Amino acid sequence: MTFGARVPRWLRVTLPAVLIIVWLVGAAIGGPYFGRVDEVSSNDRTAYLPATAEATEVQERLSGFTEGDAIPAIVLFVAPEGSTDGLGDADLAAVGERLEAVAALEVVDGDVSPPLPSDDGAAAQAFVPLSGSADLGAATAELRDTLQAGLPDGIDLYITGPAGFSSDLGSAFAGIDGILLGVALAAVLIILVIVYRSLLLPLAVLATSMFALCLALLTVWHLARSGVLLLSGQTQGILFILVIGAATDYALLYVARFREELVHTPDRWTATLRALRGSVEPILASGGTVIAGLLCLLLSELRSNSALGPVAAVGIVFAMLAALTLLPALLLALGRAAFWPRRPAYDPTAARAGAQVGGVWGRLSRGIRARPRTIWVTTAAALALGCLGITQLQASGVPQSELVLGASEARTGQERLAEHFPAGSGSPVYVVTPQDEMQRAADVLLAEDGIARVAITAETPSGTAPVTAEGIQAFGPPGAPAPEPVVSDGAVLLQGTPDDAADSAAAEQTVRDLRTAYADTVPAALVGGESATDLDTNEASIRDRALIVPIVLVVILLILMLLLRAVLAPVLLILTTVLSFGTAMGVAALVFNDLLGFPGADPAVPLFGFVFLVALGIDYNIFLMTRVREESLTHGTREGVLRGLRLTGGIITSAGLVLAATFTALAVIPVLFLAQLAFIVAFGVLLDTFAVRSLLVPALGYDIGRAIWWPSRLARERP
Question: Where along the sequence do coiled-coil regions lie (predicted)?
Fold first, then answer.
């Protein structure tokens, strides 16, 4: 009598029913949070900088010099195309009236500047402080509508600056809850229908993924609300894709085991127990490896990186739980009907899976048996050739204006602004310096070639505002009374307008030069602002990459050693995964530079690509090698390799296609970082699926033989 027969019938019915109800209730509670993520998320880059970064220190001290936490919007007015007179007095008067109307809006937090005409008379700009607590998308739309009402015909209006770029970025992320999720689920559904040639089973697998995502989102939302985690649109998108892809992969592994057991036992309860016994170890090992790799991101100095680790880890936990509880309960309730119209029939005479040598995987296993060394050497050489392109990868950072793909009003406005004003207008370099060092600090700023104008935050009749510093010895023209600077904690705030766009490499170099100059003259001076934030973010990201990549490799290597009870096999698996990653990055560099014409990549792109590809690529190694080890205990290593390949080939291929499709869905969000990550991970997963796990690893394992399990007993003894 089997264990399944001894279990009371009421428990067989009650247990899966309770599990399904628990997950239904959890999904019902978590589902409504899809539309509320923006309540606890932020795309403010300074919030993610290390607390010790100089730009962070300046940002924290700005409140002592300015009123509120407003985000500046730069409004640009440009004369009609072909106009020879530029903006006349009547035009400027009309613009001034519209700016006065803007000052009365609730979303405006502070004084609105009057129109400031350009030297060529063809344009004017104004600075409008928008409330930091407002929805910037709605705020900029209201600002635009108010300005356009009554504006003379032909005058072009642009809203740019920090508020404009944040608004564009928020609009780009607006499709995460709808478009991204819809595209990802549709892609997975199509693949599952093709794989299973069934409708009911794909729906059960998709329900598993969606319920896991609902519970993960519910957990992450409350952790973010309590301040434990930081959420951004970027992190939210990755969470959605990762949970759907991982939960579906784990479900594929379980479904394959369950179907196999239904052929060898007439009892669905027994088949469930056996399928769980065969699936628990690889699923837990796979998910645990991914979680360990993701949690290494906690070592990052950038909170945008360190926040992703625990957020994604929470998602993986719920993906594993759903695959090991909800899906088995659903399939236990459905039984063989889940596979309709291709129901697996009970056949006690059927050979165990892996013995068959027909089909694609049977032919491939015969090819590996015949020429293992030729196959693995050729595959490794081809992958190594692809790695050569990695030298062309430009991952030192991209301008903020290039973050959004497609049309961007803020980017166009910045380009038009540079035609008539210093390109850095509205995004100054901030220098916080001790009051008694004010003049020396101003001298350094005035002497810097990359700075067009210098101002000091001073008291004016309408409040605090930057007042231009024209002289070297005193602020203001000769003979004029010096403005009274605002003093906060014994320091004053200087503002330098960069000649170059604030998000350009030239503006970052200006910040470097200023910091070097102040280190020698006014060591207590701090340099911050948009350009400094970009610089500190990129440099912290590069440091993170150098630190985290080797740690991830060591952590995953140790996990593989424990799982496979060997040293040589895990080392070889890590090397093949790194080779696959190098190829993916090399090909990506060529695609980004030569095919898509991208302006470069964020330094975090290779880091995230590495963590996802290595952690997820090891998933397939675990699926393959745990089954190979299981078969090797009975049939010997070389035969175990071939049987393991035949057993897992279809599962890994399906899982790889699902994961590649879900990450490809990230490309529907018009954000450069996500588009690049989508290509790298999707292409890398397909490489793992069709080259590394189907050719390189099996051929290498077959060629080495039982020595691959060194130093375990399996390397010395025959089965």
Answer: none
520 vs 53, 491, 517, 524, CA distance in Å?
A: 19, 19, 5, 10
> Can you tell me the distance from the alpha carbon of 459 to that of 449, in angstroms, rounded to the nearest whole number?
28
Q: What is the pLDDT of residue 154?
A: 83
Residue with tokens 């190694």: 621
Distance between the two ends of the chain, CA-based, in angstroms? Answer: 29
Instruction: Give the three-state DSSP class for 169.
Output: helix
Query: Which residue reads 């689920």 in tokens?
Result: 185
Backbone φ and ψ for 349, nearest 5 degrees, come out as -90, -5
- Which alpha helices (H) appear in 458-529, and where do they start and end? 505-521
> Which residues neighbour 272 within 8 Å (Cβ) at sequence distance 6 or greater?
258, 261, 328, 331, 332
Residue 603 is classified by DSSP as T
Q: How far apart are CA 514 and CA 517, in angstroms?
A: 5
What is the model's pLDDT at position 463?
A: 47
pTM, 2 dp: 0.83
Count the residues in the chain. 719
Taking 70 as the pLDDT cut, the residues of the chain under it are 1-7, 42-47, 67-69, 82-84, 175-177, 350-358, 459-483, 717-719
3-state class (DSSP) for residue 108: strand
Give the whole-angstrom CA distance, residue 222 versus residue 228.
Answer: 9
**Owner of token pair 């101003």:** 442
Query: What's the CA gap between 649 and 668, in Å, rounded?
Result: 30
Q: Left if phi > 0, otherwise alpha if psi is -120 to 50, otherwise beta: which for 381?
A: alpha
Give the orientation angle of helix 327-334 with respect to helix 233-264, to 10 degrees.
40
Q: Is 66 helix (H, G, I), strand (E, B) or coil?
A: coil
Q: Tell me the two tokens of residue 270.
A: 């027994």
Give the pLDDT confidence score for residue 483 in this predicted structure.
Answer: 62
Nearest to 242 by CA among 266, 220, 267: 220
Write down the pLDDT at residue 477: 45
Token pair of 656, please? 């790889």
Residue 324 near residue 254, CB atoms below 8 Å? yes
Rg of the Cα atoms in the chain: 30
- Sign of the C-alpha dihedral computed for residues 332, 337, 340 and 345 taken in this order: positive
Backbone CA torsion sign across 227, 233, 237, 240: positive
| Environment class of 344 (CB within 10 Å of its CB; exposed 0-12, middle 13-18, buried 19+) | middle
